[in-house]
Amino acid sequence: MTKSEALFERAVKRIPGGVNSPVRAYGAIGEAPRFIDRADGCYIYDVDGNRYIDYIDSWGPMILGHNFPAIRESVVKASEKGLSFGCATEIEVEMAEFICSHIPHVEMVRMVNSGTEAVMSAIRAARGFTGKNKIVKFAGCYHGHTDAMLVSAGSGVMTSGVPDSAGVPKGCTEDTMTAVYNDLNSVKTLMEQAPGQVAAVIVEPVGANMGVVPPEEGFLEGLRALCDENGALLIFDEVITGFRLAFGGAAEYFGIRPDMVTYGKIIGAGMPVGAYGGRREIMEMVAPVGAVYQAGTLSGNPIAMAAGLTQLKYLFAHPETYTLLAEKGEKLYGGMEDILKEKGLGYQLNHISSLGSLFFTEQQVKDYTSAKTSDTTAFADYFKAMLKNGIHLAPSQFEAMFLSVAHTDAVIEETLDAVRKYFV
Ligand code: HOZ
Predict the structure, then answer these.
(1) Ligand 1 centre from 157 Cα, in Å?
(2) Separation between Cα atoms, residue 227 and residue 224, nearest integer Å
(3) Angle 302-317/90-102 helices, nearest 10 degrees?
């Protein structure tokens, strides 16, 4: 028995499913998850001493690779002053000023502890600001596990085979309307069904929780126009794309200005952080200025702020990071595409810059329904083979691969060799 298997045996007795988040389970794969001991650069090491090339990157934040020295040092330095005060600190002001001065659509920002919290709070602010209740989301988009968003959600909800979570009272989702990703008519129809009642449309500007599904041309522009026509706010959930696709996230990448934006783990560089922000008049609805209540002892935690701000400042000072990520994406996903073409079978490889997903289907994947046509048994087989060859992918068909700047050309070549060995 491996150390990971032994740990899993202990874990399942005390932690539901043996994991603290469902996407970590190897349920679909039928194995014990690898228990991780440490990580460095593009590598992750399990407790049995196996080294893997990591494409999870802590689900996105490790843009600079694991254990980036300046970030680690900032955490050590900040921790010497104390771990948490539950009081205002200078570094929170610096973080807010830094984000607002470099992201044009964020005039004010509030720190929270996770993407889930960011979305929950942004929706409350949007409802408070507009005085309306309905929220339009897209099937297959995942906005964390807040009650109102657990409707046709992506990520772990898709692999669990449970369309909507138990324990969510009907009342919590009766104002959630679900549209089809990349289908503007579906949004238009919902707007017509609830005229003047939609507070906000929330979207992952690049779908990344039903696997990677980029927006088709005109989709995000169309959402902007529909929101404007119907007096609804447009919320970009940039938990995955923020500071990764471009410094200004998908909003900058696609040139669309949302009214509000939510961020997650990336702005903590791996520490537990989230944030929501946007237009000043919306954010001024939030307590203690306005009537929308939202709070948190650990919000803006000084250690998390130190890590996050160090990463954001580094990314801003090194804009070449984004060219590098795009080049690495082209090398990896382009290389995979070449291999798949050689095999001549109907796989789909969706990718954009550092994000990518391989779907085991002949259908073009552009929304939740087409994503679900992927053969998850085939994915499980592929996942196992890749793991055996030292490649650490998310153990689910419906998650993204994340590249970092620490993935060297040699490492990408090694990955392509493993893909080639599997398919050809
Ligand atoms: N679902 C997110 C990744 N796509 C976060 C990971 C998690 O849920 O643990």
Answers:
(1) 10
(2) 5
(3) 30
Tokens of 118: 């960011």
Q: Compute the Cα dihedral for 256, 105, 206, 128 and give only its sign.
A: negative
Contacts 24+ apart (CB under 8 A), 167-173: 172/147, 172/148, 173/147, 173/148
Q: Taking 70 as the threshold, does the pLDDT of residue 162 lie above it?
A: no
The greatest distance separating any two alpha carbons of the chain, rounded to the nearest whole angstrom, comes to 61
| List 265, 328, 366, 372, catalytic entry | 265
Task: Tell me how many degrees the CA angle 69-70-75 measures, rounded to the nearest 5.
Answer: 95
Q: What are phi and psi of 291, to 5 degrees?
A: -95, 0
Report how far ligand 1's centroid is from the alpha carbon of 208 (Å). 10
Determine phi and psi for 376, rounding to 5 degrees.
-70, -20
pLDDT of res. 160: 57
Q: How many helices (H) and strands (E) does the chain have?
A: 15, 14
Residue type, 195: P
> What band does 163 get if pLDDT is binned at 50, 70 and 90?
low
What are the tens digits of pLDDT across the range 27-78? 877 889 999 999 999 999 999 999 999 999 999 999 999 999 999 999 999 9
Look up residue 316 and give its amino acid: F
Residue 317 CA, distance from chain mean position? 23
Ligand 1 and 60: CB distance under 6 A: no
Atom of ligand 1 nearest to the CA of 60: 3
Helices 219-230 and 184-193, interaxial angle, to 10°? 10
Q: Enter the tokens of residue 279.
A: 């237009």
Q: Is the CB of 155 under 6 A from ligand 1?
A: yes
Banded model confidence at residue 301, pLDDT cuts 50, 70, 90: very high
Nearest to 236 by CA among 118, 350, 351: 118
Contact 123, 269 (CB under 8 A): no
Rounded to the nearest angstrom, the distance between the alpha carbon of 59 and the centre of ligand 1 is: 6
Structure tokens at 320: 């070449």
